[in-house]
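Entry 14. Ran structure prediction on the chain below.
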Amino acid sequence: MPWASSDSGQSLAYLFAKQLVAGVREDGTSNKVLWVMKGMGTLRVTAHPAAGAVPSIEIGGQMTNVN
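Output, structure tokens:
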């Protein structure tokens, strides 16, 4: 299962897709991510493409559909 770690190592993101896509796929599925944190606290994720600062999204929670 693909995954990514935060720079601090305090959180992980498990990706339930082989490739992330914009929008919904032809089969109706979307990008699903399970966020896991060490310890208690509020998770806030800000993300953007590696090539630039925009567009960006900000999400919170543990299980998220990100499109």
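The two ends are 19 Å apart (CA to CA). Will compare against last week's run tomorrow.
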